[in-house]
Amino acid sequence: MRKEILKKLVIERIDRNGKIVIQEDMTISEERITFYLNGKQLMSVMSIPKDQDAHIVGFLMSEAVIESIDDISSLRISDDGLAVFVEAKINEANIQNLFKEKTLTTGCCVGITGNIDAKILKEFNRTVHQYHYSRLFDAIEDFYEQSELFNQTGCVHKTKLVLEDGSCIESEDIGRHNSIDKTIGKAKLAKIDIKKSFLIVSGRLSMEMVVKCVMHKIPLIISKAAPTHLGIKTAQLHGVTLIGFARGGKMNIYTHSSRISTEQISTYSKDIANAV
Description:
- By secondary structure, the protein is of the alpha/beta class.
- It is built from eight helices and 14 strands.
- It has a six-stranded mixed β-sheet with strand order 9-8-10-11-12-13, sandwiched between helices. It has a four-stranded mixed β-sheet with strand order 4-3-6-5, covered by helices on one side. The protein has a two-stranded antiparallel ribbon with strand order 1-2.
- Strand 11 (220-223), helix 7 (229-238) and strand 12 form a beta-alpha-beta unit.
- It is flat and about 55 Å long.
- The relative contact order is 0.13.
């Protein structure tokens, strides 16, 4: 049975002049989805009941609990859509690490992320693959024009993985982390090479968002929102090109700008030049 993602309701809308209009509106479904791994309950997460199989795959591979898509022997969603069952060969040390220490993330308690500090210390993305600046601007413009659930509800985050050949994989969810995990999970289930892709997200670029790129060797992440200082530091340390404030025909490149191809030569602003 497929769960309804959109819910209709009647609201009262009032304007600045005090005029009240009764009309139909749309809101998003939010459900508790429970993940089971090798016959045991792993965790529950508040999420949209869509792409639940990709969600758990993306999450477990982001946490290195499952190291290869070929390690999964069985993947099933329950009839009511509220549980996902995975049978797989797992990394026992990493699953213990997952529950050893939990950090309350900046994901508004909706997304899920584990204890990632220890296992990314030696991860550094050394790819020399480049992205033309015009391609990034085109992709970010398309990103916000094609957000179906957001346009209907204004209530979701979106992630789009742009592949080397220009094709895209995308997901929407109430949680920033969830939308990334679902998108990456779809790519992994399809056995697509994502090492020359780039990731567009709708939310702020905090540390745990960048770490998901680190774990999957995605060289570049971009958002119209702001990065946090720790997000920038994490990207710098692990070789991820981080771009924020991608809006209004401009974008800020915070780390590893050599991956951005342009005909222009970088110049200092007058204020910075004077300060130097």
